Automatic annotation (TrEMBL):
4-imidazolone-5-propanoate binds at R78, Y136, H163, Q227, S303. Catalyzes the hydrolytic cleavage of the carbon-nitrogen bond in imidazolone-5-propanoate to yield N-formimidoyl-L-glutamate. It is the third step in the universal histidine degradation pathway. This is Imidazolonepropionase. It is found in: Cytoplasm. One of its GO terms (molecular function) is iron ion binding. It catalyses: 4-imidazolone-5-propanoate + H2O = N-formimidoyl-L-glutamate. It comes from the Bacteria. Residues 29-50 form the Aminodeoxyfutalosine deaminase/Imidazolonepropionase-like composite domain. Its EC number is 3.5.2.7.
């Protein structure tokens, strides 16, 4: 059964062969969908016949957002911590332990209900692919169950046992646990392995050891790097061939050269700087250095509790010197690169039919109309709808 979406005012394909630009725009376009995949895109006037037709009334259509960085398996609330931050306190990631305590105390049902609620929120705002990390369990059993719950909702699951060292153990003991029994229990549910490489969390040697243990177990590396200050995170991410180094708030020119040479995506997380009052990274510096940039939400209860990719786009354009086109590309095709996926983030024949419709004539409105809910998903995507 083929369906055609026609009278699309502006279609963002992310396939530059259409018009020679980053977003591969087609005006007055149509999209044919069959069996959950894109069958055809092009000018509406030349669209092939289909079983059913939907007139989109001149609206813009973009690929669904690919949110390549989120921490959605948790319990508890850290609103008071946010309020204290806005009153002048610094973010130091110390609150992670309070989420760990709440997460350990929650039932599987409570954790999954919270996850499903957040996924529904994301879906309503146009996200169709999401990566979900563990990292609030920090025991063998709690990390494994966090990932088992996440794996019921996405194939992009990430083992982040190395988030912080829990209070009841030493760093040496904990690294041995993460690379031993915890990795063993987590690996069946995880595609990726991640480390928070930062002063106060894990240093370069520990991060290298943990990522290499994950790689030996068949997991693919990614890294939380250079969030709170300059450190070795980006360097180690490049050394081990990570798909992405995330945050990159404090990156030197050498770091940028390293990322470009190693082909490691820099995933920038504008909501974190917004919610922690840290300085924004200058995305244009990364782009000028030839680095592939992704934008993601980092939705988590501590450093950034937004699930909204349109919000991230608006902030990246306003405060990180991205053009609207670059920000939209980074939130779709860039996220797909960060997850090493070529079937999402683009609207080309064969890709998944993950479409987002804008109640607007162009992608620019995502940054031009901040905070306005102009996105709706179409058709039913792979993330669960409201339950
Ligand atoms: O990506 N930086 C480490 N982890 C999260 C924050 C975790 C928390 O504060 O709960 C992040 O920002
Ligand atoms: Fe994160």
């Amino acid at each position: 059964m083929a369906e055609v979406y026609t009278n699309v005012g502006e279609l963002v394909t992310n396939d530059p062969t259409h018009d020679g630009t980053l977003l591969g725009l087609i005006h007055d376009a149509a999209v044919v969908v069959e069996g959950g995949r894109i069958a055809w895109v092009g000018p509406a006037a030349t669209a092939p016949a289909a079983d059913t037709a939907h007139d989109l009334g001149g609206r813009a259509v973009i690929p669904g957002f690919v949110d390549s960085h989120a921490h959605l398996v948790f319990a508890g609330d850290r609103a008071p911590e946010f309020a204290a931050r806005m009153a002048g306190e610094a973010y130091a990631a110390g609150g992670i332990r309070s989420t760990v305590a709440a997460t350990r105390a929650a039932t599987d049902e409570q954790l999954e209900a919270n996850l499903v609620r957040l996924l529904a929120e994301m879906r309503r705002q146009g996200t169709t692919t999401v990566e979900i990390k563990s990292g609030y369990g920090l025991s063998v059993g709690d990390e494994a169950r966090s990932l088992a719950i996440a794996a019921r909702h996405t194939s992009e699951t990430t083992f982040l046992g190395a988030h912080v060292v829990p209070a009841d153990t030493t760093p040496e003991e904990y690294v041995a646990t993460v690379t031993g029994p915890m990795l063993e229990a987590a690996a069946p549910y995880a595609k990726w392995i991640d480390v928070f490489c930062e002063r106060g969390a894990f240093d370069a040697d520990q991060a290298r050891t943990i990522l290499k243990a994950g790689i030996a177990k068949g997991l693919l590396p990614r890294m939380h790097a250079n969030q709170l200050g300059h450190g070795p995170g980006i360097e180690v991410a490049c050394e081990v061939g990570a798909a992405s180094a995330d945050h990159c708030t404090f990156a030197t020119d050498d770091d940028l050269r390293n990322l470009a040479d190693a082909g490691v995506v820099a995933t920038l997380l504008p909501g974190v700087e917004f919610s922690t009052r840290q300085p924004y990274p200058d995305a244009r510096r990364f782009l000028d250095a030839g680095v592939t940039v992704a934008l993601a939400s980092d939705c988590n209860p501590g450093s950034c509790y937004t699930s909204s990719m349109p919000f991230c786009i608006a902030v990246a354009v306003r405060d990180m010197r991205m053009t609207p086109a670059q920000a939209v590309w980074s939130a779709t095709a860039g996220g797909a690169r960060a997850l090493r996926r070529d079937d999402v983030g683009v609207l080309v024949p064969g890709a998944l039919a993950d479409l987002a419709v804008l109640a607007a004539p162009s992608h620019i409105h995502l940054a031009y109309r901040p905070g306005v809910p102009i996105v709706s998903p179409l058709p039913e995507g792979r993330l669960p709808l409201e339950t």
